[in-house]
Design goal:
The complex is a heterotetramer of chains A (about 325), B (about 290), C (about 500) and D (about 550).
Chain B: H1 5-12, H2 14-21, H3 26-42, H4 44-47, H5 79-114, H6 116-131, H7 134-145, H8 149-175, H9 179-186, H10 191-227, H11 239-246, H12 255-282, H13 286-290
Chain C: E1 2-6, H1 22-31, E2 36-38, E3 44-46, E4 49-53, E5 59-64, H2 78-91, H3 93-101, E6 102-107, E7 112-117, H4 124-129, H5 141-144, E8 161-163, E9 173-178, E10 202-206, H6 211-219, E11 225-226, H7 234-237, E12 243-247, E13 253-259, H8 269-278, H9 281-288, E14 295-296, H10 315-318, H11 323-333, E15 340-345, H12 349-365, E16 369-374, H13 376-382, E17 396-402, H14 403-406, H15 430-441, H16 445-462, E18 466-471, E19 474-478, E20 481-482, E21 496-497
Helix pairs in contact in C: 2-3, 8-11, 9-12, 11-12, 15-16
Chain D: E1 4-15, E2 22-32, E3 36-40, H1 47-55, E4 63-72, E5 75-76, H2 82-88, E6 93-96, H3 110-121, H4 126-139, H5 145-148, H6 158-170, E7 176-180, H7 188-205, E8 208-212, H8 216-222, E9 225-230, E10 233-239, H9 240-245, H10 250-257, E11 275-286, E12 298-309, E13 313-317, H11 324-331, E14 339-344, E15 347-348, H12 354-361, E16 364-367, H13 381-391, H14 396-409, H15 426-439, E17 444-448, H16 456-473, E18 476-480, H17 484-490, E19 493-498, E20 501-507, H18 508-513, H19 518-526, E21 532-533, E22 538-539
Parallel strand pairs in D: 3-8, 3-9, 6-7, 7-8, 13-18, 13-19, 16-17, 17-18
Antiparallel strand pairs in D: 1-2, 1-4, 4-5, 9-10, 11-12, 11-14, 14-15, 19-20, 21-22
Classes of the chains: A mainly alpha (about 325), B mainly alpha (about 290), C alpha+beta (about 500), D alpha/beta (about 550).
Bound molecules: adenosine-5'-triphosphate (ATP) (2 copies) and magnesium ion (MG) (2 copies).
One adenosine-5'-triphosphate binds next to strand 12 and helix 11 of chain D.
Subcellular location (chain A): Cell membrane
Keywords (chain A): Cell membrane, Membrane, Plasmid, Transmembrane, Transmembrane helix, Transport
InterPro entries (chain A): BPD_transp_1_N, MetI-like, MetI-like_sf
Chain lengths: ~325, ~290, ~500, ~550
Amino acid sequence: MPVYFVRRVLAAIPVMLVVAIFVFLLLRLTPGDPAAIIAGDMATPAQLERIRDALGLNDPLHIQFLTWIGRLLQGDFGTSLISNKPVLELVEDRMWPTIWIALITITLSVIVAVPMGVLAAWRHRTWVDHIVMTFSVLGFSIPVFVIGYLLIKLFAIDLRWVPVQGYKAPSADIGGFAIRAVLPALTLASIYIALIARMTRASLLDVLNEDYVRTARAKGLAERRVLFRHALRNAAVPVMTVIGTGFALLISGVVVTESVFNIPGLGRLTVDSIFARDYPVIQALILLTSGIYVAVNLLIDLSYSLLDPRIRY
Amino acid sequence: MADSTPLRAALRLPTAKLAGLGLGFAPLIAAIVLLLIVLAAVFAPYIVPHDPIAQNPVLRLKPPSADFPLGTDAYGRDLLSRVVYGARISLTIGIGVTVMAVVLGLFIGLVSGFFRTADAIVMRIMDGLMAMPSVLLAIAIVSLFGASIWTVMAAITIPEIPRVVRLVRSIVLSAREEPYVEAALSLGTSMPRILWRHLMPNTFAPLTVQATYVCASAILTEAILSFLGAGVSTETPTWGNIMAEARIYFQLKPSLILWPGLALSLCILSINLLGDAARDILDPRMGKREG
Amino acid sequence: ETITAVMHSGLRVLDPVMTTAHITRDNAFMIFDTLTAMNSDFEVTPQMASFEVSDDGLTYTFTLRDGLKWHDGGEVTPADCIASIKRWMVRDGGGQMIADRMESLEATGDKSFALKLKEPFPYTLQAMSKPSGLALFMMPERIASTPADTAITEYIGSGPFKFVPDEFQPGVKVVYEKNEDYVPAEGPQSWFSGAKDVKVDRVEWVTMPDAQTSINALMNGEIDYMEAVPVDLLPLLQGVDTVKTDVLAKLGSVTIGRMNFLYPPFDNPKIRKAALMALSQEDVLTALIGNPEYFQVCGAIFGCGTPLEFADGSETLTSGGDIEGAKALLEEAGYDGTPVVLMQPTDVVTLAAQPVVAAQALRAAGFVVDMQPMDWQTLVTRRASQAKPSEGGWNLFFTNWIVPEVSNPLANIMLNGRGDSAWFGWPNDPEIEGLLGEYASAADLDTQKSVAEKIQAHVMENVNYIHLGQYNSPSAWNAALTGVADAPFPVFWGVGKSAD
Amino acid sequence: MMAEVLNVENLRVAIDSPGGAEVVRGISLTINEGETVCLVGESGSGKSVTSLATMGLLPKGSLKPVGGTIRLEGEDLLSCSAARLRDLRATRMSMIFQEPMTALNPVMKVGDQITEVLQAHTKLSNSACHAKVLEMMEQVGLPDVTRIVSSYPHQLSGGQRQRIMIAMALVLDPKLLIADEPTTALDVTTQKQILFLIKELQKRHGTAVLFITHDMGVVSEIADRVYVMNRGDLVETAPIDTLLRHPKEEYTRKLLSAVPSLTPRAARPVSSERTVLQVTELVKRYGGGGFLARAPETLAANDVNFTLKAGRTLGIVGESGSGKSTVARCVMRLIDPSAGGIRIAGHDIATLSRNGMKPYRRKLQMVFQDPYRSLNPRITVAESIMEGPVNYGTPRAEARARAEELLELVGLPASAAARYPHQFSGGQRQRIAIARALAMEPDLLVADEAVSALDVSVQAQVLDLFAEVQERMGIAILFITHDLRVAAQICDDVAVMRRGEVVEIGDTATVLGNPRHEYTRALLEAAPGRHWDFAAFAPVSAA
Ligand SMILES: Nc1ncnc2c1ncn2[C@@H]1O[C@H](COP(=O)(O)OP(=O)(O)OP(=O)(O)O)[C@@H](O)[C@H]1O
Ligand SMILES: Nc1ncnc2c1ncn2[C@@H]1O[C@H](COP(=O)(O)OP(=O)(O)OP(=O)(O)O)[C@@H](O)[C@H]1O
Ligand SMILES: [Mg+2]
Ligand SMILES: [Mg+2]
C-alpha cells in the first residue's frame, strides 16, 4: 500500500508538469496584457511599456518559465500582477468557499443519486426506471445558470426561505453558512446527481446479473438486503470512479454557480484572473485545481481497496 | 459457461435485440424531436419569419405578436428566427465537437492502447489535459484565438479528447486479450491491420454512447462560455448566447430564456435518450443480462 | 452601522496613480483626500488646502488646513503633498502639462507650499482638482516617494475612511472604517468638495458578477446600495417600497467610437465621415439603455449640461443617421471594400451593444464589416497594437467615459493629436493640437468657449472620434439610507442609515 | 418407498414474450428423501431452467413457467407468494451453482455469507450463529476454519469456495439440494473430493439431491436414478444401472456412445520421421520486476522438453494451472519464453522478433479453447478464414474459393461462408476455427483445450474431424487438454504436466495404461466413471 501510494504520487509529477507547461504556454501565447488592465483606459503606449517592463513581461519566454518553475519548487507562487497580493494568500482566502460547496454538493448528490440509481436498476425497464432516468437526463440538459436562477426565484424570492446570495464561513456562522450553501449546492448537484444516478444504475444492472446475486436470492434473503448489501457494494467501484472524474465537471460548474450566487470562491477568481491576464494567479489556480483533481482521483483509487478486498496495492 | 449460449447468440441479432428490448416510447419520441430540430436547422432560411440578426431598436423586448411569434429580444430581433437559426450553430457545435473528439480520441486511444511505449507518454499528456478544468481551458483558448465558432469548437473539443482516449484505450486493452486477436496475430496479420479490423470495431458501441454525451455537453459548454462572456458573437445566434444575452431579463421576460432553453433541453434530452437506447442495443452484455 | 454596497466592478488595483480604472479612483476617494476639489458647478474649491493664485498667474500657493492627520497618526506636511504631486505628474496628462511649465514646487512654511510656473497655465487648478482620469490624491511622503511605475503597497491616506487591509479580498470585497480623526472641511457637501461627514462606522463594498443577483439581494435587504442598475431591470425595483432608485450621476456618461487612423479605410477622413454619418445615436442608445428616460441624444462632444456644450456638426448623429449620405460619401471617397475590423467585447455589458448596432448601420451604408468578438482584456491589449488590422490590429472599437472625463478639452484624452503618442488610434492632427494650445492659454471663459466650439466642429469633421450620445445609469439603495447624494460617482460620506 | 420430496409434473417454461417459444416442454420428475437423481442432457436442453424454476429464480422478464406444477413436500411452489418462496429457500430447498469462482460475493467475508442465511431464517443469537457456521464449515471438510471464516472468496481455492457454497446450502438442513454442475469448473482431484463430500452429507442428513451434469462419468459414480433431457423434453428415466446397460432411447444411446473411452486407442504407425517441433529446456516465468513494486513471480513452465513428428499428435495433460497453456503460447510465440529453445523444422524461433516470426507464422497455427471468443463476431466466417492466406499474398478470389472448400472439409456447407459466427453453434464455430487454422496449411497445429467447452456429442464430432484432417494432410498436432478420456482417444504420445514440469512422457498406451509416476496415477484415479465403458454399455473389461 505505501509503495503503491508513493508510486502514484510520483506518477502525478509528470501529469502536473504537463499541466504546468501547457498552462504557461497557453497563457503567454494568449493575447492580452496585464499591463493594459492595470493602466486603465487612458494609458498611453509608453506607459504600458513601462509597466510591462516593471512586471518582467518583456523577458524571453523560457526565462519567465524557468523563473516561475524555480520559484514554484521553493513553494513561492509569486504575487498577483494586478492586486499585488501574494498568490497563496489570495488562493487561501478563496479556496474554502469552493471546497465547502463542493463537499456539500458531493454529499448531497451521493445521498440522492445512489438510491435513485438503485431504484432504476431494480425496476429496470419499468416506468420507475424511465422516470428516474428522464429526470436525471434533465439535470444534464439544463444549463447550470438557468437552474440557479430558477432556484433563486423560487426559494429566495418567492418563498423567501433562504437568502439570494452570499457566503458565510462555517467556522464563523454554521447556520448562516448552511442556509446560503443550499441553493448553490443544489444547483451544482443537478449535473452530479444525473451522472451518479446513471452510473449507479448501469453498474448495478451489470452486477445484478452476477452469479452471486442469484446466490443471495437463492439463500432466501430479502430483496432490500440483496440490493444494498450484495449488489451495491460490488457496483461501487465504477460509481466512485465517476465521482472522481465528475469532479472536473464540478469545477466547471462551480465557475458559473459562484457567479450566480455571488460566492467568493476559486471559480470566480480563476475567471476573473483569466480575463485580467493575471498570469501568476491563473497558473497557480490551474495547477491547484489540477492537483486537487489528481489528488481526489488518487484517493478514489485508494478507496477501491476498501470497497473491494480483491483490489490490493 | 455454456449456460444459455444459444440465447446469447440469438441476441447478437439486431432485430432480436430491438424486439426484446422494451425500452418504451422514449427513444422513439426522442428520435422524432431530434429529427424535427435537425430539419428546422437545415431549412432555417425557409421557415423563419425574419432575418435573425436584423435589429430594430424601436421594437425591442416586445411580447409575442403575429409578426414576432415569440416576441423580440433587446435589439429588437425576432426571437423565433434566432432560436431556429440557433439550432444550426448549436447543432454544428455539438456534432463538430463530437466528430473531432471521437476521431482524434479514437486514433490516439487505439495507438496508445496497443503500443506500450507510446502509451506511457500519451497517457500522461491525456491525464494532464483531463486534470485541467475544461471550462477554464476553453476560456483561455477562446481568448487566444478569438471567439469564432471554430475556436469555440476547438476549445470544447480539447478537454473532451482525453475522455474518449481513455474509453477507447480501456476497450483496446481488454479486447487485445481476446483470443481472436491472438488468432489474428498467429495468422500473421500486421499490427495496424489488427488495430483497424479487430480492435476498432469493438469501440463502436461504447463510443456511440460516449458520443452522445460529448455532443450534449458541447452544446451546454458553449452556453456556459457565452454566459461567462467568452462565447461567439451575437451575430451568430446560438442557443447558448441567446440565453446568455437574455439572462438579465430572466425575471422580467422569462420567455427570452425559456424558448432557447426549451430547445436546448429538448435537444439534449433527446440525444441522451438516444444514447441510452444505443447502449442498450449495442451493449453485447445485454445478452448476459437476460440469461 | 454598516453600509454594504455593490459597486460597478471589483477592486483589484489599489494605487490610484497606476490606473485610470474607475473603481480604483472610487476607492481612492474613500481613503485619500484631495488638495482641492471640484463641486457640482465645475468650480475648484479648497479641500485639504486653500489656495491662492498670484496676479501674473505664475505662482500657486497652497495652505493646508489644521487638523489633517494620516491614518497612521502622522501630521500632513507640505513635503507629503509635494511628493504626492510629483508622483502624480509623472503619470497624468494634465500633470505632465503642468510639469512642462513648472519652475519649482517647494514648501514655503510649516503648512504651506508653492507651485511656480514659467508661463501662465490657467488649466492648472482644474487639472489638480479633476475627479477622474488620474485624480490627484495626497499620500504620506514615504509612500508617495514610490516610483510612479511601481505600485504602492501601503494604503494610508488622510481621507474620511480607513482602508482595512485584513478584510480586503481583491475583486470580491473591500472594507472601510470610519476615520474617527477626520476633520471635515468647511462648507456644504457638493460632489467632492465641502464637508465629508461620515455617518456610519463601516462601509463594505462587495462585488457581484450578476446584476440580477444584486437586485434580488437589494430587495431582500441583503445589501444597501447598488451603484449601477441596468436600466432594463429597473421595473423589478419599481414598486418595491424598501428600495429607492434614482440617477445620482446626473451628468452621466458618454459612449464613443474610436477609429484607427493608421490604416485603411479609416486613414481617409472622408470614409471616417461616412461612417459617422451612417450612425444614429438613438439606435445605439436604445440598444444600450432601452428606456429613453435614461439616455439623451446629444451632439456635444464635451457633454450636454456642461459649460462647453456645442452641437456643431452633429446633425446626422442626432437625427437618426444619414445612410444615403454615407453611401454617397463612401462612393466619392472610393472605398474599396477593405473590411472594417470591429472589436466587440463580449464580457462587458455596457459595451456589448454598440458594436452590434454600429455593424448593422455601417453595413447598410456599404461598409464591409468584420466584427470580431473577444473579451475586454483582449480588446484593451489589441487596441494598443499598431499592427495592420488583418494582422492583429484593428479599425474600430467603442468605449464609455463619464462626462467629467471628456468635458474639458485638456482632460479629454481622445483629442490628443500627436500621432504615435496619442491615445489608441494615433491620429496625427496638428490642427487640433493648435486648437488645444489655444485653449490652454485662453485667459477667460469666453475665449475658452469659442475655442471649444472650434474643437467641436473640427472633431465632427475630422472624426477624431464618434460621439454617440449620453446616458445615465440609475443607482438603487435601501430606503433606510439617508443623504445619498448626487455625484458623478458614488460617495459614502454624508450617507447614514436610519435605525429601522 | 421413502417420502417424496420434490414432485415436478408436466412443467412447461417459455420465453416471456408474446408467442415466446417453450424451452421446457412438459417435464415431470420426482425425487425421494435420501435419493440422488441426476439430470443429464446436452447443453441447452433445459436442465438449468428446470432447476431455477424450482427455486423460483427464473430470470424475471425473460422466462416464465406456463404450465404444470412443482411441489416441494406437497406445497405448490409455482403458486405461492414471493415471500413464502423466500422463506422456503435455504430452509427447505437449496441450490449450489456451477461456478464457484463467481457464485460468492467477492466483497463479503465467506463466514458472513453463511451467517446471513441463519440471520435471514432463524432467530439465533450472534454467537450461536457463529458457532453453527464454524460447525458447518468443519462438516464440509474445510481446514483451518477460524481463518477461513473471515477470508474473502478470492483468498480461497476453487474447491474451498465450492465447499463454502455447500456449507451455505446445507446449513439449515434443507430437504432438497439442487446442484447445477457443481464441479465442472474444478479439476478432477478436487471434483472427486466434492462429490464424495456431497454424498457424505446426504447420507447424514437424508437430503434429496437433484444433480445436474453432462459428465456421464460423474453420473455413473453418484446417481441412484437418471433423467435424460433433450431440447426441453424428457427423453428417458431409469435407475442408473439400467440406463447405462440398457438405454432404451436412441438419444440416450447416442449420448452414451459419444463419451470417449479412457482406454487408449490402438497405436498408429509412424508415418514420417520428419521432426516438426522440438522444444528444449523451455522455461517461462511470469511477473517479477516492476517499477517500485515487486510483482510475485510464477514459474509456469520449467525445463520442458519434447519433440513432435509430422503426422503425430502429442497430448499435454495435467490439472488446471499446471502450465499447459503456457507451453502452447510459448510455442506459438504469443508470449516470449524466458529461456530454452523452440525449433520449427530445425530453426530456432524462441528469440525471433515480431517481424522475424512472420515467415514461421504460417507453419504454426492454433485452435483456441473458447469457440465463442476466438472468432471475431463482426467478421464473416469467410473473411476470418481468408485472413491468413491474404496476409501472405494469396489473391482474394483464390482465398475465398479455398475457404469454401475448407468449410466443406470441416463439414459445413459452403454457403456458411457469408454468415457471421453468432449464427453457428459452439461445435460449428470450433470447426470454423479449425478451418481457419488449416487454411494456412500449417505443419503444426496447436489445440489448447479445443474441445473442453463442447458437450460430449459435439466433442466427438470435432475429435473425428481432427483425426480426419491429420490423416489427410499429415499435420503434427500438439493437443492440450485436462480430459484424460479425450487424450486417450486422440494422442499418439502424452506428456503429463504438474506445476510447470513434465513428470511423465511417452506413448499414450504406456502413460495412461501403465502409469509410472504417482501423479499420473492420481489423475487417472480421479477420473470419474473410469470403471465404466460407456460406449460399450458395460463395465471396463478387466484387461
Ligand atoms: N433468460 C433466458 N431467456 C430466454 N431463453 C433462455 C434463458 N435462459 C435459458 N434460455 C434457453 O432455455 C434453454 C434451456 O437452457 P438451460 O440453461 O436450462 O440449458 P442447460 O440444459 O442447463 O444447458 P447447459 O448444459 O449448457 O447448462 C436454452 O435453449 C436456452 O437458450
Ligand atoms: N499472464 C500471466 N501472468 C502471471 N501468471 C500467469 C499468467 N498466465 C498464467 N499464469 C500462471 O501460470 C501458471 C500456469 O498457467 P497456465 O495457463 O499455463 O495453466 P494451464 O495448465 O493451461 O491451466 P488450465 O487448465 O486452467 O488452462 C498458473 O499458475 C497461472 O496462474
Ligand atoms: Mg445449465
Ligand atoms: Mg490453459
